[in-house]
Amino acid sequence: QVQLVESGGGLVQAGGSLRLSCAASARSFSRYYMGWFRQAPGKEREFVASISWNGGSTYYAASVKGRFTISRDNAKLTVYLQMNSLNPEDTAVYYCALNSDGKYNYWGQGTQVTVSS
């Protein structure tokens, strides 16, 4: 059974930074693409970033490109999201997810990020 646990959320002022972590219990973690998503109040969940199994390929939503960086440490079974130059529009619950069989089938419980103006 796959378990994903996010951490690192919190309250930060606009222009600040946070680093989110997602610890996985998945066997063969290094075989899977991983992604970060977010859901703001009253909005649908949206894609933020993803990373290939070995970290060689990364993808970002246009709204975060150049400010956020996704990375992973397969030895630690962990994926990270470094978030810089945060603005109030980044306020959301952030979820990590594991992509198996072409779908994000496994999700963490989420971590709240709040950016004050």
| Spans where pLDDT lies below 50 across 5 or more residues | none
- According to DSSP, the number of beta strands is 11
Largest sheet: 7 strands, mixed
Mean pLDDT: 96
Structural class: mainly beta
3D shape = globular
Radius of gyration: 13 Å
**Oligomerization state of this entry?**
single chain
Structural account:
The chain has 117 residues and is mainly beta. The chain has strands at residues 4-7, 10-13, 18-24, 33-39, 46-51, 58-60, 68-73, 78-83, 92-100, 103-107, 111-116. Strand 5 and strand 6 (58-60) form a beta hairpin. The protein is globular and about 40 Å long. The relative contact order is 0.31.
How would you summarize the topology of this molecule?
Elements: E1 4-7, E2 10-13, E3 18-24, E4 33-39, E5 46-51, E6 58-60, E7 68-73, E8 78-83, E9 92-100, E10 103-107, E11 111-116
Parallel strand pairs: 2-11
Antiparallel strand pairs: 1-3, 3-8, 4-5, 4-9, 5-6, 7-8, 9-10, 9-11
Structure in a nutshell:
With 117 residues, the protein is mainly beta.
What are the defining features of this structure?
about 120 residues, mainly beta, 7-stranded mixed sheet, 4-stranded antiparallel sheet, 11 strands
